[in-house]
Design brief:
The protein has 7 helices and 12 strands. The protein is an alpha+beta fold. The protein has 2 domains: 13-119, 2-Layer Sandwich (Alpha-Beta Plaits), CATH 3.30.70.260; 125-266, Muramoyl-pentapeptide Carboxypeptidase, domain 2 (2-Layer Sandwich). The strands form 4 sheets. The chain has a 4-stranded antiparallel sheet with strand order 3-4-2-5, covered by helices on one side. A 4-stranded antiparallel sheet has the order 9-10-12-11. It is elongated.
Length: 267
């Protein structure tokens, strides 16, 4: 049964024209009820929590709850709030920051960004599209080769990491599930035949093809096509050919990739 999915907005900034916004970073005991205690306090002060995140620290007995809040409905000074928050039984530390300009708050208290404990960055699809466009303007058809090889290197590295811990099919499921969690697209394994070294993968809303959706006569994936080539060449132990047979850029419902052993290896 398909999941109902909800948009996930990365904790970065918030804007409210008439709001009185502040950011809080609260280090808590990692225990049931800790967040509830802080949330109840803010509710009692008529403060609306707008957006945030929660994570366990390197010390598993501690956690951090970072969030933006609108103090417009409260008569409290933020400095007085901090003093009261520090008195809560679950709270270990508190930091706060104010808006950059009236109504705009940007996360200044959390750095670096990590994903699965690895240092990461966030980049908009629009920015990626601009980078790809510039590559094609400067290098012509050579840009496709560059993007493919970039993706292949990333796929090889990821597959090597996962296959050391899991069987190949399970590793593939983990890799593709992570692509969705990281915003690449929602991938599905349509076929996986390790004996024949063949596979079919479909992807909904693939990030590198979205900017061209319905506006191209050709398939557009190069980076992700290379990524799959890197993954499956490691899993199958052979050079593979990855063909994008369907693409949202040319009006198809999804992007579809067919993985086969490279013809030179079948001779």
């Amino acid at each position: 049964m398909p999941y109902k999915r909800y948009q996930k907005d990365i904790f970065c900034s918030a804007y409210s024209k008439d709001g009185y916004l502040f950011q809080f970073a609260v280090k808590l005991k990692n225990a049931p009820g800790a967040i509830a205690e802080v949330a109840k306090f803010f509710s009692s002060k008529h403060i609306n929590i707008l957006q945030g995140f929660h994570m366990v620290c390197s010390n598993p007995e501690e956690a951090v709850w970072g969030f933006f809040a609108d103090l417009k409905g409260s008569n409290e000074r933020v400095e007085d709030l901090i003093k009261e928050i520090k008195k809560l039984s679950s709270v270990l530390e508190v930091e706060f920051s104010g808006p950059i300009i009236d109504g705009l708050i940007v996360d200044e208290l959390h750095f670096p960004i990590t994903v699965l404990n690895e240092r990461s960055i966030v980049m908009k699809i629009k920015t990626f599209a601009g980078c790809f466009k510039r590559l094609y303007e400067k290098f012509g058809s050579g840009a496709a080769f560059i993007l493919y090889e970039m993706g292949k290197a990333a796929g090889e590295e990821k597959a090597q990491s996962e296959r050391e811990k899991l069987d190949k099919l399970t590793a593939l499921k983990v890799i593709l599930a992570e692509r969705a969690a990281k915003g690449w697209g929602m991938a599905k394994i349509e076929k996986f035949d390790e004996e024949k070294a063949e596979a079919i993968i479909t992807v909904q809303e693939l990030f590198e093809c979205i900017p061209f959706q319905g506006r191209s006569k050709e398939t557009k994936s190069q980076f992700f096509r290379g990524y799959l080539a890197g993954v499956f060449s490691q899993f199958f132990g052979k050079s593979v050919l990855v063909t994008e047979s369907e693409c949202i850029a040319k009006g198809d419902k999804n992007c579809k990739f067919i993985i086969q052993v490279h013809s030179e290896e079948t001779n």
